[in-house]
Amino acid sequence: MKVKIYHNPACGTSRTVMGLLREKGIEPEVVEYLKTPPSRDEMKKLLKDLGMTPREILRRKGTLFDELSLGNPALTDDQLLDALGQHPILMERPIVVTAKGTRVCRPADKLQELI
């Protein structure tokens, strides 16, 4: 099974999901999105596959969310995509992509829907 994970090794949930994949004998393609953020087009495709908006993928805790006033309802999707591109830490994680679909695997047991 081909699997891709948008991974942050500093995140406990992301490490748990990585461990669960490996327990199942799956060695995923790992995208450390803080080092190699998705392009704007890749982010749009991820969001489409997730069925989410840019606002819904934003991680609030431990990020620049409040400093950048990203909770402002007047901000457009394009403005939020710009913020995600400039500050990939804002992306909720981990995101796992398989032939069965794409999910934010938070909590980690959401992985079961994909494998």
Structure description:
The chain is of the alpha+beta class and 115 residues long. The chain has helices at 12-23, 40-50, 54-57, 77-86, and strands at 4-7, 29-32, 95-98, 101-104. The longest helix is centred in the N-terminal third of the chain and has 12 residues, at 12-23. The model has no long low-confidence stretch (mean pLDDT 95). Strand 3 (95-98) and strand 4 form a beta hairpin. It is globular and about 45 Å long. It folds into 2 domains: 1-33 and 93-115, Glutaredoxin; 38-90, Glutaredoxin. The chain is 32% helix and 14% strand. 28% of the residues are buried.
Brief rundown of the structure:
By secondary structure, the protein is an alpha+beta fold.
Beta percentage is 5-15%
Order of helices and strands: EHEHHHEE
How many helices does DSSP assign? 4
Cα-atom radius of gyration: 14 Å
How do the strands and helices of this protein lay out in sequence?
Blueprint: E1 4-7, H1 12-23, E2 29-32, H2 40-50, H3 54-57, H4 77-86, E3 95-98, E4 101-104
Parallel strand pairs: 1-2
Antiparallel strand pairs: 1-3, 3-4
